[in-house]
Amino acid sequence: MTRIWIFVRRGWRVMAEIHLVDWLIGTVIPGIPSVALGWWAWATDLPGPIIAAISLVVFAVVFIAILVFLGYRAERAFVKPPEIDLDVGRIPIIELRKMAAAAGWSTDAHATVGQNDGFTLANRLRQAVIDKRVNVWGRKYEYDFGEGGAESVPLVLIPSDHFKEFGFDALGLWGQEKNYNIFTNKIPKTARELRGKIFRDLYVDKRQLMAWIAYNKKGNRA
């Protein structure tokens, strides 16, 4: 019953759009059997109130049936928008911290000298970007708006040639910095010294990064 009521309401919305064909279906067609039955009742000398009641009931039944039909047709015609897979696309580059650990790399900033693989992994990632195997996006670092104003600067695909001169800030990448404070850099200069030339708030293609880190497990050659 609830389903029928939904179709009735949807059919009424279709009627409300006043498409000519739907208007004819919803008004003229219900009137035909109503008038015919009313004529039959008149021909058989039934009282006027009964004739009117019969005509009204027939019209209402046929009209509701047509509304159900129109509502059902509208539902069948409705094309459900494709579901968006939110598990793909760009992800913050700091997600690499978890991926690297799962792949067997040690990126602990407090690890002893020679036990931290952060610089090795950052350099390999830089090479992968130059080779156009991993796409990286970032915001051009020109102003210090703060994280709250990050969207004032659009996120753009960083040209792979950028990484021929600049690398990743490995200390920030493997430390505790928020994604907004991860920069491309050029040792030994600071981010402020390179303002206008580098990018911050870096993002990477998730599928490409997953494929890259799967290949670059600890012990594999670059």
What does this structure look like?
- The longest helix has 30 residues.
- 49% of the residues lie in helices and 9% in strands.
- It has two domains: 76 residues, no CATH class; 126 residues, no CATH class.
- By secondary structure, the protein is an alpha+beta fold.
- It is elongated and about 105 Å long.
Find the structural class using helix and strand composition: alpha+beta
Mass-distribution shape: elongated
Radius of gyration: 34 Å
Tell me the β content: 5-15%
Low-confidence stretches: 81-87
Secondary structure: number of strands = 6
Main sheet properties: 4 strands, antiparallel
Count of domain modules: 2
Quick tags:
single chain, 222 residues, alpha+beta, 2 domains, four-stranded antiparallel sheet, two-stranded antiparallel sheet, 49% helix, 9% strand
Could you give a quick summary of the protein structure above?
This protein is of the alpha+beta class and 222 residues long. It is built from eight helices and six strands, in the order αααβααββαβαββα.
Secondary structure elements and their pairing?
Layout lengths: L1 H15 L3 H24 L4 H30 L12 E3 L3 H7 L15 H13 L5 E5 L15 E2 L4 H4 L1 E2 L1 H5 L9 E2 L13 E7 H10 L7
Antiparallel strand pairs: 1-6, 2-3, 2-6, 4-5
Helix pairs in contact: 1-3, 2-3
